[in-house]
TrEMBL record, chain A:
Database matches in InterPro entries: SBP (IPR006059), Sperm_putr-bd (IPR001188), TAT_signal (IPR006311), TAT_signal_bac_arc (IPR019546)
Keyword Transport belongs to the record: yes
Organism: Ruegeria arenilitoris
Matching SUPFAM superfamilies: Periplasmic binding protein-like II
GO cellular component: periplasmic space
Protein name, as recorded: Spermidine/putrescine-binding periplasmic protein
Key words, A-Z: Periplasm, Signal, Transport
CDD domains linked to this entry: PBP2_PotD_PotF_like
UniProtKB/TrEMBL annotation, chain B:
Record PANTHER family: INNER MEMBRANE ABC TRANSPORTER PERMEASE PROTEIN YDCU-RELATED (PTHR42929:SF1), INNER MEMBRANE ABC TRANSPORTER PERMEASE PROTEIN YDCU-RELATED-RELATED (PTHR42929)
Protein name, entry field: Spermidine/putrescine transport system permease protein PotB
Top-rank taxon, per record: Bacteria
Key words, A-Z: Cell membrane, Membrane, Transmembrane, Transmembrane helix, Transport
Cited InterPro entries: MetI-like, MetI-like_sf
Species in which this protein is naturally found: Ruegeria arenilitoris
CDD domains named among the record's database cross-references: TM_PBP2 (cd06261)
Membrane protein topology class: Multi-pass membrane protein
Amino acid sequence: MTKDNGTISKQKFMEELRRYQKGSVTRRHFLGVTGLGMATAVLGTAIPGLRPRPAFAAGDIGDRVILATWPNYHDEMNFEAFTEATGAHVQVNVFGSNEEMLAKLQAGGSGWDVFVPTNYTITTYVGEDLIIPLDTSKLPNYDAGSFEQRFSDAGSVDGQLYAVPKNWGTTGFAVNTSKLDGAPTPTTWKEFWDLTMEGYSGRTMVHDYQLTTIGNALKYFGYSFNSVDEKELADAEKLLLDAKPHLFAISSDYQPPMRNGDAWMTMCWTGDGKQMNVDMPEIAYVLGTEGGELWSDYYAIPKGAPHMDAAYALIDFLLNPEVNAKEVLAHGYPSADARTNALLPKELLEDPILYPAADLLNALEFGAAATLTDPNRAELLARFKSA
Amino acid sequence: MTERGRKALLLAPAGIWLLVMLALPLLVVFVFSFGERGAAGGYVPAFTLEQYANLPARWTAFKNTLILAPLGTIAALVIAYPLAYFLAVRCSPKWRTSLLILVIVPFWTSILIRSYAWIFILGGRGLPALLESIGIDDIRLINTPFAVLVGIVYGYLPLMVFPIFVSLDKLDKRLLEASADLGSTPWRTFRQVTLPLSVPGIATGCMLVFILLMGEFLIPAILGGGKVFFVGNALVDLFLQSRNWAYGSAVAMTLVVVMLVTVSIYMKFISRLGGQREDVSLM
Amino acid sequence: MSVPMQTIAELRGVTKTFGNVVAAKDLNLSIGKGEFLSFLGPSGCGKTTALRMLAGFEKPTEGQVLLDGEVVNDLDAHHRPVNMVFQHYALFPHLSVFDNIAYGLRQQRPRVDKQKIATKVEQALETVRLGGFGPRRIWEMSGGQQQRVALARAIVNEPKLLLLDEPMAALDRKLRKEMQFELQNLQRQLGITFVLVTHDQEEALSMSDRICVMEGGSIVQVGSPRELYDMPRSRYVAGFVGTSNFFDATVTDSAADQITVRLASGQKVHGTPEIPIDAGQEVCVSIRPEQITLTRALPTAEIALPVTIQNRIFLGEHTEYLARNEALGDFHVLVPRQAELNEGTFNAGEQAFVSWGEGALLILEK
Ligand SMILES: Nc1ncnc2c1ncn2[C@@H]1O[C@H](COP(=O)(O)OP(=O)(O)O)[C@@H](O)[C@H]1O
Ligand SMILES: [Mg+2]
């Protein structure tokens, strides 16, 4: 990618997106099973000490910064540019779930400098004293006013800023319409579950993730995505257990089976939905009209980060609208930053998968902290899986 | 220094190592299993049997493990034995080394990557497509117990082949001649001499594979699509997803106990079967 | 042998090659019923190969192996009424002594009844003097006992031919002597034909009815121990069967019953060769050490050679001297105790004479 950041054509965008897909192993599941958060990709191409120091060091921030994030969620070129500018290497650890990140931080000694929590986890991190308040004077590129509020306010707890927005997205479902035998494309979670137990029996996948799998089962009954009500959860569990024999898999690694035709329908995140739809237009991305999940990821610094200066430097670098625009083009998830969006092509901003219609979007709910940490929901999913 | 003192000093590092690496974690798990889950997960000290009372909620995981681990062990044995026999007895020494290396090479790649290959083979575009072309329709292989079994056999084959190979390789070939000399047909020689003398290798291989299978979680996760759940998967979930360390510890302790019981029954059985002086060694 | 024997096994022009190694070359041999025959020769001369062809572990490349008059080239080992005692016994480590011995009986079809097996095994154990050892494990037995078990395991089947491949090589000297004795008794007692392979001439000489001497894959001479000792055909056989002094000589005169040869020292001696020899031929003469007389005074014998005593070794019954003649070289001389008492001991450096009686000197092919 060139340094000059002129407007990018739609064609160029698609090329970028394809590049991303080709190398795509957006496999939260993959990590989930290697498990234990041990899958660590080191992006630095050489051992830090052996690399030439940059001619213009922007203040000495050390030779490395360690980032815990999600798979395929960055543009590697940006990390190289960061190293060039500061002399610090970005070492990337990729994770499979928020629970896993939380477990790792709770266990202590993670060694991370920056991590990428999802909106509903931040209050838990604050409550557990695992995260530090951010000093905005060290983040000159952070402009609170330029972010759409619903995607940024989870970063503050009790008026104190702990995390700054990275990207946002939705959780819907992807369906291979060519297997519908001419029936109309489903539009609701009710249809999702009914189809699973009838025409698509043995062809549906649900996430290996309690938040979305239980949340979207609750939606069948019109309950809140975040419900922790005992009776409502009991209904959801019954639905899940009824559906289980009809599932192709319980896994968040849904792209490969969807693409090769083993699976016909799956719970799906924005980026994956977009990628599959581009390659196989018969795979539609649907947001259930009953609602579902809306989420937003943030950058934050864990307590005890070993390279504090480098942590601030990296976050600030990634908040730079020009850098951020490149990030969006590389991973395909929308940004809440108006300054960044101004640099993105119009076609992208009008894409119905990435930016759903307002009425669909308004029906969605953010996951709640209580939803993530609710022991009953966690145990429910585990029971469902081991049933 | 006395002889005893010197011995103690020599054994000290190993003893400390064993204590730290084996006994200590087990002790921690034991203590945790009587505790409670914290509000945001983790462990809160307590003394309650609640976690153990909850065990029935993982019955299916135990059942799956206790069915598929022995089944996988037997399947691996059935496939590994002829292979090891061929390598040790039939194969010309010229080829033996190369073939042995061929057996190990897949072991150098992560089980994860190898199992992913099976996703394709057992997936809709692999074997089922082939079967369809010869008229056998609608066979689903991936994400079934069968797929997990295939993955297990494939993944653990070298662990089974090697001990058996070693026991067959060191088998004195003159015993086979002696048997023939005494009027035994080749098949009876196999049953009466070769097989009994390879029992230590079989026992070691089975033990190795069985113990590792009891803790397996990767293969069921990848080839079972989350639908064939082992105790190992339950543990990964409990420690990494629901962060219920107390319950996870109780499940882990139970697994350890189940393992100890099955292994000791197995050892009894083997020692009765073998009746040999050489003890059934673990490696 | 004086009594004509019934042939039980036969090798007819048998050759065996492994790749380009000729392990056995044109072997022709009849083995008589009830005899004790030994294959004798140095390591690698093809003894084991010959034995394994009789057992059925190797197929001849050429020629025929016959058992009881029938060609058995294509009969597998497990169908031959022949049993073997292996060099390192090859006992089954996972079976008890009893089960090892019963092994052969249990392979028989139709099945032998259990009671009968027990009786036969006990009998075999008694025969090898291991009565009551049946329940023992193999590793609980000493080397000598294991050897007896191996023997019992073979004889219990009452084979037509019992093959023994260096069965005593792993035993210490004293035990070996004992076993040699027992083996010989056993053979007489059972009447089974024994074929023994050994590289130990003493063993072959002491036990066998006949010895088959092999060299480089070929049979060089077959005969009773006495025949081989007294009338070896070649220097190789004479050297292998007992020890001897060898000297080069040239034939000066050859008649039907007597030839004359000239030693390197110039003396002419007479003898009767086992094989026809022409005048002018280079030959070898051999004198056994015990047939040489050592005297201080010049003896009256046909030939007496002056020697200087080099060395003396006391062997109990005999004393062995090394005596050097200027022209011929070293003589080994074995002096019996009685002679020694008459003549007194010789010391190193002392001058003496060696001489021998008529017929002591053998003329052999070189
Ligand atoms: N299986 C075999 N393959 C190749 N060469 C062999 C084999 N068996 C024996 N020989 C060769 O044949 C020759 C005779 O061997 P063997 O009969 O064992 O001699 P001996 O028993 O007299 O020591 C040796 O040169 C040996 O190396
Ligand atoms: Mg030999």
